[in-house]
Amino acid sequence: MTKIAIVYHSGYGHTEKLASHVEKGASSVDGVETVSLKLKTGLEDFEALLDADAIIFGSPTYMGSVSAVMKQFMEKTSKLFYVRGWKDKFAAGFTLSHSLSGDKLNALMQMNIFAMQHGMIWVGFDQLNQSPDGEPGKSDVMNRMGAFLGLMGQTENASPEITPPSGDLASAEHFGQRIAEVAKRFA
Ligand SMILES: Cc1cc2nc3c(=O)[nH]c(=O)nc-3n(C[C@H](O)[C@H](O)[C@H](O)COP(=O)(O)O)c2cc1C
């Protein structure tokens, strides 16, 4: 089996919702199993990730960066950095925030640099922004924010039951499937 791990933090449930759709997409691929680790403090044990073929990182964008909990987790992995424990695993990242931009790109870049420091192999998001011309950011289409470094979602100030919208959830499923297919091909 190809193993895909999803590690995420979610203060208010929105990133958790996106993570569940990423996992749904990954687990739809034959021969793939998933494991998910929800961070509460960032100090959790992450032994279960050691044999993963790919690790997908998810964090809300807080103050234009990954959350403090995700950063805590990143720093906790520094011992693995020295022994190249995650070298050549696939990596990918997703984030969401309240605003259309919200400076989400910075959070994805932090995850990307983190993965590069670990010697991982980064996989981006392959889908074009499918909003029709004249209707930018249409909420029921794939990749409405046109992000390629990783997956972006956008929330309103509402319960995770109704946000992020359907296009972001479909994007998340496609994203999870893509990472799983890439990891399976090289496993
Ligand atoms: C401490 C904090 C900082 C935030 N900073 C940003 C930000 O920089 N840009 C933005 O668009 N939204 C920002 N938000 C809004 C969150 O990104 C948004 O509510 C998101 O849905 C939260 O995800 P979660 O439910 O997984 O925690 C911030 C929220 C909090 C609590």
Please describe what this structure looks like:
- There is one protein chain.
- This protein has 187 residues and is an alpha/beta fold.
- It has one domain: Rossmann fold.
- 34% of the residues lie in helices and 22% in strands.
- It has five helices and seven strands; from the N terminus they run βαβββααβαββα.
- Strands 1, 2, 3, 4, 5, 6 and 7 form a seven-stranded mixed beta sheet that branches.
- Helix 1 packs across helix 5.
- The N and C termini lie close together (9 Å).
- Flavin mononucleotide is lined by residues 10-15, 60-64, 96-99, 102-103, 155.
Give me the secondary-structure topology.
Elements: E1 2-9, H1 14-27, E2 32-39, E3 54-62, E4 65-66, H2 68-76, H3 78-83, E5 90-97, H4 104-117, E6 121-122, E7 151-154, H5 166-186
Parallel strand pairs: 1-2, 1-3, 3-5, 5-6, 5-7
Antiparallel strand pairs: 3-4
Helix pairs in contact: 1-5
The structure holds flavin mononucleotide.
Residues 10-15, 60-64, 96-99, 102-103, 155 line the site of flavin mononucleotide (FMN).
Outline? globular
Main sheet properties: 7 strands, mixed
**CATH class, please?**
Alpha Beta
CATH structural fold name: Rossmann fold
**Strand coverage percent:** 15-25%
> Can you tell me the residue ranges where pLDDT is under 50 for at least 5 consecutive residues?
none
Q: Please state the structural category.
A: alpha/beta
Number of helices: 5
Helix content: 25-40%
Order of helices and strands: EHEEEHHEHEEH
CATH superfamily: Flavodoxin domain
N-to-C CA distance: 9 Å
Number of strand segments: 7
Number of domains: 1
